[in-house]
Fold this protein.
Amino acid sequence: MRKKRYLHQLYRILGVTFGMLVLGCLFLLLIAPNPDYSEKEKRYLADAPKLSLSTLASGAFMEQTEDYAKDRFPLRDAFVSLKVNLDRLFLKKESQGVYYLKDHTLAERFTSPDNTAFRGMIQAVRDFSGRSGIKNQYFLLAPTAAYVKKDLLPANALTDDEDAYISAIYDSMASSVEAVDLRPVFEEAKEDTKLYYASDHHWTSEGAYLAAKELLKTMGIEDLPAYESGVVLNDFSGSLTAKSGFTLPVSDSISVYKEKDSDIVYTVTYEKEHRMSGTVYVPKALYGTDPYQVFFGGNYPEITINTSADTDRQLLVLKDSYANALLPFLIPHFSKIKIIDPRYAYDDIDVMVKEADYTDILYLYNAVTLSEDTSLTLFLKGEVPGEAGKQGDTDPGEDPSKGEEYPSSEDHSGTEDTTVSDDESESADTEASESDSQTSGEDSSGSGPENTETPPAESQSENTDPIPSDSEPENTDTSPSEDTQESSDATLPPETEPARRLTLNECVFVGDSRTVFMGSQVINGVAGSQVMDDSRLFATYGGTLADATAQDNASRASQVQAPVAFFWYGVNDVQIMPDRDDADAFLQRYSAMVEAYRANSPGSRIIILSVANTSVNEKDYYPGQEENIARYNAALSAYAAASGFNYIDVTPLVSESSFLPDNIHFTNAFYQQLMPYLQDQLTQLTTP
Amino acid sequence: MVFSSLTFLLFFLPLTFLLYFLLPGKLKLLSLTVMSLIFYAWGEPIYVLLMIYSISLNYGMGRLMASHAEAKKQVLIFTVVINLLMLAVFKYTGFFIENINGFFGWRLRVPAISLPIGISFYTFQALSYIIDLYREKFPVQKDLVRFACYITMFPQLIAGPIVRYEDIERQLARPKVSMVNFGKGTMRFILGLAKKVLIANYIGAMFDMLHGQAAGSVLSAWLMTLAFAVQIYFDFSGYSDMAIGLGEMLGFEFMENFNYPYISASVTEFWRRWHISLGTWFREYVYIPMGGNRVSILKHIRNILVVWLLTGFWHGAGWNFIFWGLFYAVLLILDKYVVSRWKLPKGLAVLATFILVLLGWVLFYSDTLGSAFSVYGSMIGIRTPLSDQAGLYALSTYGLPLVLSLFFCLPVMKVLKGTIEKSVPGRVVIYIVMTGLFILTLAALITESYNPFLYFRF
């Protein structure tokens, strides 16, 4: 090796520099005070790692160490900024789902919603609108910057079609609500008006004002007061800069509109927080983490604005945060405005409507939020996430004819879906997920004509409606037809002990995603094993016993009046419930669900399946899971024994090779082993 | 633990070097061994015991061979078998059982054995020791610490280069520790770190994005494969650079592992420039013992096939890797007996070789033969358009970095550096560039944890 002496000094200096940099950073990391909270990211930063035998063995200590070093690194924000902006130098125009537009503003990427969620929401809105009995109903779905400024997006940016989504929503709901289409208005105004914030996903007050004028016009309100606007905050750096890490050359400012000569007075009541205010603005918020909260202080479950306006019109609003900037413009035109945020509200919407005199309903959302939202659907059906047992007005046990249309009215011949779902891979949606709309579907039967006027693609959900004659469904039930008759006839005496062998297809299954995947659904790219007909499955992907869906699944299953009901819940409970260590709490919820089933189908044999574990690869993420599952299963088997139910342990069938790469769900091969096993057990239990 | 982490840079390195430089003579290697074990245990708290077992076994067998020279052969066979068995069990069990199930239709349970990191590397190093000891290339290593240090040394433990014992034997007795070597190693280390974090990870994101959508066009298919070629080169060679640099900082000299493979003018040349230490190992311990090329043509072809099937299989427990090895076996045979007779212009030869290498990478990154062939189909436009949105987006977003990275695959920077380092301002520039690269790398590592709380969604 040739010795290049002249390089030696370079090497020495570089070596020293490196050593000093490393030691310096280490020193600063350990000694210098580092903030616990990141302003830019709006979250708490990682704490020092905890040293113990268990954290060492599980590898948690190692992870915590790295997280700690990353989060507490001196001058962290500066380093992040450096990296992100350097990326931009190399023409990277997207970060964390946020695009950097050609005019140096940011826009959030739009993703089309899941097809099932989309149809569920349409149905929920239509049903609620029908049964609310309120004359004037409006839907304002605001487009976002990703659509309005689409020619400024980076070339070939992969964002879904927001325009198609908005059209699909409006078209599907055309019979129930009046659409307020902002697209033409915004298209025209976008050159001269700053409609959206550069650094935040909300619209500006100017954009909101424009939208408000359009909305009021649709509402038939022509007489609008004069407004003046004033800037309340410069240097506004909003959600998108925080999310992406990009820094923008120009900062935003927030303006607020005030009526010029106003003689309207109003009060703002935050119902659940039990406080009142004389204004919709919360100036304190301008100096906080999210200045957009200057409007109303943020999102609350229920706000009532009572005004001195001389009118009988009272408005009910179901909304997301876009509404906050728009609602002030509605104050002069209604004597009362009730603002509900379905993400937080937990009262019964039908009761609320009954107890007041609303003349108008307004749905106010932006496309991005709505496409990801599930709370609106649940809220309108009277099901609130996290509150078990709340049903809509419909009581499943009441209508005897309900048993009839349920099992036979599925059409599983994977028809084409609406434009929105072009890029979704979902096909043949099952009744299991759509049947949520059933219970509320019953009531809307009163407004018959509405339900028949649907675009062809919607007919899928229409098949469950008893009235329209267009639903000539095929019975794709795989069991012999006589079974269908038996299970669909609610008047059949419950305990008919069949002389021949009972097959699984005559039973119902109530459970979580592991039950969902017995059918044909494809969720998140995972395809079901198709070992069972979807009509026998009453299951929720990601469901826990604390979800309202658990009781809902049980009660819908009970309508089938099947001779046997299998219950298979637990894997989500043991992972995500805060009280997962409490086997008693688990059992309580489990038994509540089973009781809800038995209330309507007392003659069914109940078979509880043990909670199966997940792959060992998950061991580190869920410490104590195995022990908890053991406790759950012990509790379940004791409960079954005490109540006269059956308990089948499926764990002998489960091995590491049973799992899909996601470590939780099972392979087709597993289901092909499980079902014969269950059939076998079933035969042993039911043949005398 | 991985080199490209803050834990390694801020916590592990200072402590390790402090101990290593401050402790005298023999204790240096002891501290290095202990820190290396901690380094390994950090990522594999249980499997570190396996490695300790491997060290003890091979050390013991080495001593046995030395003291019982008449049983040399038996000891060798025994040790080699145990080592290979260990590798087979921990790396290939799942593969074997799945294939048995598939072939016979049985339903044997596949035991869930996770792969111990680095087992392919340290097993091969141990094998090189025992085999060369048998060949009497060096005296037996009686010092357990020195032997353990050889196996566990953290720079090359996880990802090579595969250091043969005979190359390092004398260095273990007296590593060349000096400020100059420390600095030289630092430079190499920073270079490797930058290659991995700034280029490989970045272009890796491009590959992931395209791989996520099925190859929908000619453009996407080629871009995706180019991205992978860039990623794997900078990832692997970056890691090797870091290993060599760290070795230098400690006073050891490891062999080069990569030598600008993408400028090769033939497939044969490619394998003399890519993962050199592996090629050397197979040549030394499999190819040459089987006769190498000093046999009949038929046997020569057999030798190449065996070595390359093993090489492919070494890379991973999957049929796609075996086919990748087979792919190169065929190409190498053709090269030796057919192509080398042709006189191709250099430029054409380099381009053709590069394209063949890209086609090989398709096999490497595809999970199944089917998906590999669908990529091949897309590449020549069978039932796919010329370009699609994903491909165009990838081009506009990653095009510039991709082109730059391809540029860096050429030895231009090496030549440039060689020129400017001769002058003082040139050296200042190099200093600034290296320091800047290190800071950028830190920025990239920190940003990986950038995780804003998204309550703004509302």
In short: Chain B has two domains: 6-175, 181-265+344-445. Confidence is low (pLDDT under 50) at residues 453-458 of chain B. The two ends of chain B are 39 Å apart (CA to CA). DSSP finds 19 helices and no strands in chain B.
